[in-house]
Each structure stands twice: as C-alpha cells, then as structure tokens.
Design goal:
It is built from 7 helices and 15 strands. It has about 325 residues and is an alpha/beta fold.
Length: about 325
C-alpha cells in the first residue's frame, strides 16, 4: 500500500508499505478520504510547535498528521464484535501522532476510536467527524449551561471549526448566528451553511455590535475558533453572557474590569465518544453538513499542493483520495 511520510519541514514522500494487520480490539479500514487539519498540517510544514512545550521530530510518523478519515472496515482483530466488515466508519479520535496515521490507503485503528457513519453520504462529508467531535464537546457543555437556545450567537473565525460551530449553534436553537472572519471567501461559505450574517471584524461594527463598556451588547453567547488574543478579546467585548474558547491558545487573554458585568468564559473539556455520537447524530439528521468545508479534492501524492492551498487561505479543507492516481 501507499502511505505518506513528511520527511522534513515542507518535504514528503510516498512510501510502499505492507498492509497492516489488525490486532486484538482493532480494525483495518480501507481509507476512502482524509481531510486536512490545517493546524497540524501547516505547523508541521513550518516546524512550529502546535502549543507551548510541543515539538516535531522528523521524519514524522508515517501517515501523520492525517487523522480525519472515513473508510470501509475490511478486517477485524480478535475479540471485535462492535463492527463488521463492510461498515462505513470515521475516525473520531487520534491515538497520538507516534502511531501511524491515515494519510494512507489502509489504516489500523482501535475499534473504540471508530464510529459508524451514514453510508449514503460521500466520504468527504464524513471524513471530518473528528473535528466535529471536538466542536461538539464545546456545544454539549454550552447546552448544559443553557447558553445557546433562543440566543443571538457569535462565532469568530469561519475556518473549518467555525463553520461547524455555526451549524451546531443553529441546531441547538440559536435565534441568530453571526460570524466574523477576515477572509471574504470564508464569510461567503458561512452564509451558505446557514449563518445569518457574516462580517469583517476590521470594519466599523460599533453600530451593530457595540463593545464594552457602553450600550447593551448584541451578542449573548459565542465561541472563538481562532485562538488569537485579538479574536478572543473582540468576542469577549461584544458578548453579554458566555464565550467558549475553542481555538488553540498560545498567548494570554485579558479578562479586565469591563468584563465583570456577567461575562463567563469556558474552556475545552476534551475528546469524548459522547461528543462524537452527538456530531454523527447531527449529520444523520441533516443538521450538520461537513461537505462544504471541503473546497478541494486531490490524490494523496499531490499532498504538497493541498497544503499550499491552505497556506494561501485558498482552501478551507483539502480532501485527499488515496486510491486516485491523477
């Protein structure tokens, strides 16, 4: 089989490797589609740590950082009864980047890290389930806080996570969903997936979205999907009740006296099977459409071209098809 390996920053190769065999509690999947995780792919390209204290070692583990994948179960290890050959599944949890990843034609995964997905959908519509699980963990928390239903909801950053968050806010009953992004194409995509309005945060929005301290705030709840200080504090200053922090934090945010009038912040609880099931249920009901996140599809051997598109912000997600040759 073919499997991709990033050999050094901005270089990669396709290796020939034997098809792996599943061990006890594992399943072998024939990978049909893998979508990029822009954070991992771009940070790996530039040898930039993903978060404080992290480092990359090259050559990187073969198949990584591919971890958003959909495929068909073709073989099962000893003791596996939860799945059957022929099941369409997605990977909802990456066991870690020291384990072979899914930028490959076949991959072995622990059964508990796989989840059945609707087989009638194209594979690119279910490959990003892992990201949807991550965002879903935030919305399950916001649901417990009664923070979304009937409320005007803001999303900063309309990349892959933000586009999922906007749809989940709608599914949870937000009265209105408003997005903010610097990129006009991403704002347009947001409108296509059901956002009511999308704005460039650099514009003068003081009339629509007054900031603290001052007039009553227009947003009641929101989620930041960027992680940058300016983005988080933009949302904090314009949201009355709850701001969820989803974007990877690499710098300090300032909670100042102007925020004391009731603003709550919540972080990220982490991955869970329940969040994966929540996301797949939304997909099955038609309340979450992951296909619009995929703006380009390429064969795996053109991996670098896809990362170039991410680099130039000309793609939201790239889907690689490991069995295509052209």
């Amino acid at each position: 089989m073919k499997i991709l390996q990033v050999t050094s920053p901005n270089t990669y190769t396709l290796l020939d490797a034997p098809i792996p065999e599943p061990g006890p509690g594992e399943a072998l999947i024939r990978v049909e589609a893998i979508t990029t995780c822009p954070q991992w792919d771009l940070h790996l390209r530039h040898n930039e740590p993903m978060f404080p204290g992290h480092r990359f070692d090259y050559p990187y583990t073969a198949g990584q950082p591919g971890h958003e994948a959909t495929g068909e179960v073709v073989a099962l290890g000893e003791g596996v009864t939860e799945l059957a050959a022929g099941d369409r599944v997605s990977v909802w949890k990456d066991p870690g980047h020291r384990h072979p990843g899914c930028y490959a034609q076949y991959a072995v995964k622990p059964v508990e890290h796989l989840i059945r997905v609707p087989g009638h959908l194209p594979p690119e519509a279910t490959a990003p389930v892992e990201l949807a699980m991550c965002v879903g963990a935030v919305f399950r928390m916001l649901r417990e806080m009664n923070a979304v239903a009937g409320r005007r909801f803001g999303v900063t950053g309309l990349g892959p996570a933000g586009l999922i968050a906007a749809q989940m806010a709608r599914a949870e009953g937000a009265s209105e969903v408003v997005g903010f992004d610097l990129n006009v194409t991403r704002r347009e995509t947001g409108l296509k997936v059901g956002i009511d309005a999308a704005y460039d945060p650099r514009d003068d929005l003081s009339g629509r979205f007054p900031a603290r301290p001052g007039k009553p705030l227009a947003l009641e709840c929101g989620v930041d999907c960027v992680g940058a200080k300016a983005s988080v504090e933009f949302l904090m200053d314009r949201t009355a009740d709850v701001v969820a922090l989803f974007g990877v934090q690499r710098e300090d945010y300032t909670y100042s006296p102007r925020h004391y009038s009731g603003l709550r912040l919540c972080g990220y609880r982490g991955h869970s099977r329940e969040a994966a099931e929540y996301a797949v249920d939304l997909i099955a009901r038609g309340a979450l459409d992951l296909a619009p996140l995929v703006t380009h599809q390429l064969p795996l051997h053109r991996y670098g071209e896809g990362i170039d598109l991410l680099e130039r912000q000309e793609a939201i997600k790239v889907c690689y098809r490991p069995w295509e040759e052209v």
